[in-house]
């Protein structure tokens, strides 16, 4: 069986406090976008994961897709599977590609073996793999809070806007980004702002990681500046970086940004 996990962007990201368990509480809006991997599961004599496409750091045996399989295998007597993963979503870009892949594996296994898992149960499995993994089970815009793994429905629709995403040749470590961020409660919750028109988002919908990430990687800051110079209504770094997205009133081409970066149009 084959499926196509998609990426996400963060419409705002406020790091509100550091928790006693070492994690951080935050608030953000996860929004799905049309940049996709491909994942396939097939019956096999032994469990394995083969990764193709974009190079993924680390051992394939530690891939989140395999961990998703083992979580369900512990509760259900399902056959051994080979997981084939074609990576297209940029890595280290704040787009949640790995989280999407493992969540879609959970959904594939549920469908293939007719396990009858509820959305809540699949989200429970996904939460064990990463804070944003559960989002990809329903894969709809949500306001996320606590560790980023608790959700409320969010009526945000950017389908009428032209969306651009820029991925510079920079890998931002999520751990390093969190180590440098200074948690603080925002003056106004993202939950209240996000329902306003995107024309009002600039300087209101923010990403707390931008301060430290821009200081270390000024080329990411320059991309955001260039997007506004090109007429973007709104631009922001996604997650802990390094990708930057923007929304425009109409289709654009950005040849000057294509020279040194991956550029995706109408995501």
From TrEMBL:
GO molecular function, one term: kinase activity
Chain residues that bind ATP: 90-100
Domain (GHMP kinase C-terminal): residue spans on this chain: 192-251
Signal sequence segment: none
Enzyme Commission identifier(s): 2.7.1.148
Domain of life: Bacteria
Pfam families, per the entry: GHMP_kinases_C, GHMP_kinases_N
Catalytic reactions of this protein: 4-CDP-2-C-methyl-D-erythritol + ATP = 4-CDP-2-C-methyl-D-erythritol 2-phosphate + ADP + H(+)
Ranges where the GHMP kinase N-terminal domain occurs: 63-137
Catalytic residues identified in the record: 8, 132
Recorded metabolic or biological pathway in which this protein acts: Isoprenoid biosynthesis; isopentenyl diphosphate biosynthesis via DXP pathway; isopentenyl diphosphate from 1-deoxy-D-xylulose 5-phosphate: step 3/6
Keywords, in A-Z order: ATP-binding, Isoprene biosynthesis, Kinase, Nucleotide-binding, Transferase
Family indicated by similarity: Belongs to the GHMP kinase family. IspE subfamily.
Function description: Catalyzes the phosphorylation of the position 2 hydroxy group of 4-diphosphocytidyl-2C-methyl-D-erythritol.
Protein name from the UniProt record: 4-diphosphocytidyl-2-C-methyl-D-erythritol kinase
Source organism (scientific name): Pedobacter mendelii
């Amino acid at each position: 069986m084959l499926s196509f996990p998609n990426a996400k962007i963060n419409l705002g990201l406020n790091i509100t406090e550091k928790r006693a368990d070492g994690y951080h509480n935050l608030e953000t809006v996860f929004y799905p976008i049309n940049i996709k991997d491909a994942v396939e599961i097939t019956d096999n004599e032994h469990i394995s994961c083969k990764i193709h496409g974009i190079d993924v750091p680390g051992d394939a045996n530690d891939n989140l897709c395999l961990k998703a399989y083992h979580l369900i295998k512990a509760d259900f007597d399902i056959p051994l599977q080979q997981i084939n993963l074609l990576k297209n979503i940029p890595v280290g870009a704040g787009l949640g590609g790995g989280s999407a892949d493992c969540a879609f594996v959970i959904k594939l296994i549920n469908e293939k073996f007719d396990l009858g898992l509820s959305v809540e149960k699949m989200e429970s499995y996904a939460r064990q793999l990463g804070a944003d993994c559960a989002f990809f089970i329903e894969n709809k815009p949500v306001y996320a809070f606590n560790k980023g793994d608790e959700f409320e429905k969010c009526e945000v629709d950017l389908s009428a806007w032209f969306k651009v995403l820029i991925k510079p040749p920079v890998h931002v470590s999520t751990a390093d980004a969190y180590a440098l961020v200074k948690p603080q409660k925002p003056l106004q919750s993202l939950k209240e702002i996000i329902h306003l028109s995107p024309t009002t988002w600039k300087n209101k919908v923010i990403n707390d990681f931008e301060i430290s990430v821009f200081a270390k990687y000024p080329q990411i800051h320059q991309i955001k500046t260039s997007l506004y110079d090109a007429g973007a209504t709104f631009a922001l770094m996604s997650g802990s970086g390094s990708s930057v997205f923007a929304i425009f009133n109409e289709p654009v081409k950005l040849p000057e940004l294509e020279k040194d970066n991956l550029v995706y149009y109408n995501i």
